[in-house]
Amino acid sequence: MHTIIEKLCTLWKPGWQGMVMGEMKYKKGNGNSRGRYEETFDGRRFVKLSVTDQDTGERISILLFPFSGNQGESPAPSEVRYWKTFTPEEVHAYSLSLGDHNEIHLTSHPVVSGFQLMEELMRLYPAESVKLRFHHPLYSGEPLYLREEGTGIQGFTDVLCFTMEKL
Asked: Is the pTM of the predicted complex or chain greater than 0.90?
């Protein structure tokens, strides 16, 4: 998985600086093309990138949106369990290992990379295909809690950060 994420990061353009992931999909399987494209929707800019590894058949795609720190607020439910805290050093090291150029992952109090969350979640909940939707940025140093519902996983700080569903 790390290799295909690295390939996706090589497509980075300076104009996307500061944008955050709204959604990421990952799938194991066969494929034979690589691609990327940029679209505009309702006058609001978003970017969709996707890569298929010709050797392994892995496919990953992401949607990037302009940064907004005020999305999807909801109180964390009581039936969650502590999962982990990402330190700034861990976020920096992970992003640098990818060649990630998005400075929101490299500041003194960075937003945790969605790729880093995906890799950690896939270690905990292996699946052939998953979709991760981000509702709120997760900052380094914030304790992160998880709640499982069937095949879905929700991540919380004091707000709902993300939902992951196995496809």
From this structure: no
